[in-house]
C-alpha cells in the first residue's frame, strides 16, 4: 500500500486505507499534546475545576479532531474545485455580519446560527488561502511578476480585509493581510513591490492612525509605554510580565500561580493563557509549548515542500503561515513584544471558533501530505 | 514549461526562506522568555509578592499612665463597633431595618452607611455604629440570627478615669492631623490616635509602642484569601508620674468654681505632686471626638478652660516677689537683719507718690516684720537702693523669667526685666520709679505658677536648685541638686519672715495657719492689681472687691511650704480675680499643705 504513492505521479483518487495510513500520526500526536496542555491549563484557570472551560474545550477539541480527519480524508482536488465557491460564500457571510450581525465584545463579529456562533472572519482565513492558492496555481510566473497579473489576487485580499477592518477587528485584518503577503512572497512577487507597499504603508500611517478607534490607539500607545496607564490599558501587559517573570525557570507549580489565581492576570483563560502556563510551569513549560509549535510548523513545511502539486504546496504554506501568525502574535503579545491585539493561542486558549478553524487547516495540511503524489492540473 | 519549472523553483526557494524565518522567530521567543523569567525573575517575583501580599499594621495597646501610687490616670477601654459585610447579607435594607429595631440609627448615620456601601466592594466591612458598650454589643450578638452579615469588632479606646482633673497634665490623645510628623507607619493607620497634649504628648513615643505586622494574601479585588504571617507588636511603656491623685483631687476641690492654678512640689526633689489649672475640661471628649457644641462651650468660656494656667498663665508675682527682693538686698549687703525702715503709708519720689497697702503705715520694721506684714514701703526703699539688675539676677536664680521645660506644651517664660531689656524693648532707659514698683513684684514682672512653686521650693530647701519634674523618683534616688551658693543665714531670715506671715500675730496669712502634730506652714501672700487704682478712686474710696466686676478684681496669690522646720512640700496658688491673697489664696495653699502632711503621715509605717 505504501508503495502506491511512493512511485511517482498518479491521477486517480487514493483508496480509503491509503488515505488512512497516509495520515501523519506523529503530527496528530503533536496537536493532541498541545490541546491536552490547553485543557489542563483551563482546568487550572477555573481554580482546579473542569467547569466551565476545560470540559467544553475538550468537547470542542473532539469536534475539531473529527473535522480534521474529515478534511484529511478529502481528495485534495476537491479543495481546488470549491476554492472560489467557498471564498465567495464566506465573503457573503462577512457582509451578512455587517448587516445583521450580533453585537458582541463591542464589535460585530459573530453570526448566530442557533447552535453555534459563527465568526466568518475566522473562516475567511482558510477561504482566502484556498482562493489565492487556486489563483496562483493557474497563472504563470510571468503573470505573477507582471503588474496586471497581481491585480485580481490583490482584490481577493483587499475586499475581505476591508470588511473585517470595519467590524472592527484589527487583529484578524492584520492576520489576513500577513498570511496573504506570505503567499504573495512565496509565489514570487518581486521584493521591490513589497518595498513599495511597506513604504506606502509607513507614509500613510498617520492617516491610518486617524481612523483607528480610541481603544486601538490606546493599545498601541500602551504597548509603546505600558506605564502610561498602569491601572487601565497598561494593566494587562504589566500583570502579564509580572506573572511570567515571577514564574522563573521552574514555575510556581500547577494551580499555584498567584498572579492568575488571585485574578491579577486578566483574560487568563483566553488571550493570556500562555502567561498563566509560564507562571505555573516556568520557562521549562513555556519552552516546551514553543517547541511543540516549532515542530508542528516544521512538519507542516516539510509536508508542503514534499507535495508534488503547486496548489497543494501553496495551500499548505498559507495555512501553516496562518497558524504561525496566531502563535507568534499571541506569545509575542503576552511577552510584551507586540501590542495587545486580542489574538488567542490556538488549541490552548479557550474558544471554539479558533479550534474549528485551526483544526480544519491541519486537516487540509494532512490531506496535502497524503495526496502529495496526486497530480493537479492548472484548473 | 520552462517557465512553469521556474515557477515551481521560486515557490520552493521562497518557501524555505519563509519556513526558516518562521522557525527563527519562534526561536527568538525563547530569548525573551529567558530575559523575563531568568534575568528579571527577581524583580518580577518581588512585584508579584507586592501584588499578592497586603501588609497591615497591628496597633499595639497604648501605655498606661499611673500616678505615684499606681492609680491609673490614662488607660485603654475596650470598645465595640458593629460592622456589616454586604455580601454576607441577603438584603441590606432588611438587615439595616432589623438593626434599627435593636438600636436606633440617626439619619446621618444611615446616610453615611449608604455612602460607604456604595463606595466599597461588597466584601469590605462597613461600620454601622461604633463606641458601643459591652451591653449593646451583647444585645446585637444575641440578635445575630436576624442580622446576617453583621458582626462585632473589638477595639481599644483611650480612657481617662479621673476626667477633668488631669486634663492639663496627662493631656489627651486625638486623631493624627496633617501637622503631625509622620515618622512612624502607625500614624498612617486610619483611626490611630496620638498624644496631643500633656504627658500623652511628652511621652508619646514611649506610650505608643511598636506596631505589629499582619501579612495577608489578597486577590486583585483586595479580598483577603488567607493569613500568611502575624507578628504581634510591642505594647507601649507604662509611665509612672510623680503626681498624687488625692492631692490633685484636693486642689480641684479647693479651687472649686474659681479660675486659677495650684502647683505642689516636693521641695527636695522637684517632683510635682499636684498640677491643677481650673477650670479644666474632660479629656475623654477629645479622645472620642468633640461635637461642635461641646467645642463652642469650652472655647467661649470666660475662664478659659483650654488655657493651661500652670505654665501658660502669666501673673505679676506681687508680694510673693518680696522674698527675692529681700534676698537680693541681704546678699548684696545693702541691708542686714537689723536694718529698719519707717513706713508712713506712702512715699514720694519726684512728683510721684507710692502707697503702701496700709494707708496709715506700719511704722518702724525690719526685714522679718516687713515680710510678715507685707509692707510695701520697706521693699520700695530696698529696691530703690538695690537697683533692678541685682533683683533680676536673684529672681533668675530662683527660676523666674525662664521656662522650667517641664515638658507641657505652650509653656511661657514670663518676664524678669532689667535695664538692658528696657533699652532693647522700648529704647528708653530704666526709671527709678520702675525700681520701686519692681520691689513689690509689680510693673513688668510676669511669672507663671510653676515658676512660683519652683521659687518657693528653692527657698524652702535652703537654696538648692531643684527643677520641677513629672517623673516619679525612686525613694533612694539622689537628684544631686546644685547649691545656689546663698548664705544660709540670709535664707533663714526670709524663711523666718514667711513663718511669721502665717504664724505671728498680724501676719497676712494668719487665717490659713494650722498645726499638724507640731508641723506648721510658712508662706507669703500676694494680691496683684489687674488695673491701676486711679487718684480719684483713692480719694472717693476704693470699691470693695466683691463690688467690682469679676474681670477687674485683683488676682490672689500665695506661695508656701511645710513643715516649716523640715520643709517637704512647696505650693503655689493663683486665683485669678480672686480678690485677696490672704483671704482666698492662702486658705487653699494651707489646706493643700495640710492634706500633703496628713497623707505623708498615713503613708509612713508606724515605727
Structure description:
The complex is a heterodimer of chains A (379) and B (607). Chain A has 379 residues and is mainly alpha-helical. Chain A has one domain (17-370). Chain A is built from 16 helices and 3 strands. In chain A, strand 2 and strand 3 (117-118) form a beta hairpin. In chain A, helix 3 runs antiparallel to helix 4, helix 5 (76-100) packs across helix 6 (120-138) and helix 5 (76-100) packs across helix 8 (151-165). The longest helix of chain A has 34 residues, at 273-306. Chain B has 2 domains: 56-240, Penicillin-binding protein 2a (Domain 2), CATH 3.90.1310.10; 245-603, DD-peptidase/beta-lactamase superfamily (Beta-lactamase, 3-Layer(aba) Sandwich). The longest helix of chain B is centred in the first third of the chain and has 38 residues, at 2-39. Chain B is elongated and about 150 Å long. The termini of chain B are far apart. The mean pLDDT of chain B is 89. Classes of the chains: A mainly alpha (379), B alpha+beta (607). The interface between A and B is large, with 51 and 42 residues.
Taking pLDDT < 50 over at least 5 consecutive residues as the criterion, the unreliable ranges of chain A are 1-7
Structural class of chain A: mainly alpha
Assembly of the depicted chains = heterodimer
Poorly predicted spans of chain B: none
Helix content of chain A: 55-70%
Work out the helicity level of chain B. 25-40%
Mean pLDDT of chain A: 87
List keywords for this structure.
heterodimer, A: 379 residues, three-stranded antiparallel β-sheet, 16 helices, disordered N terminus, B: 607 residues, Penicillin-binding protein 2a (Domain 2), Beta-lactamase, five-stranded mixed β-sheet, 21 helices, 21 strands
Short description:
The complex is a heterodimer of chains A (379) and B (607). Chain A is mainly α and 379 residues long. In chain A, 69% of the residues lie in helices and 3% in strands.
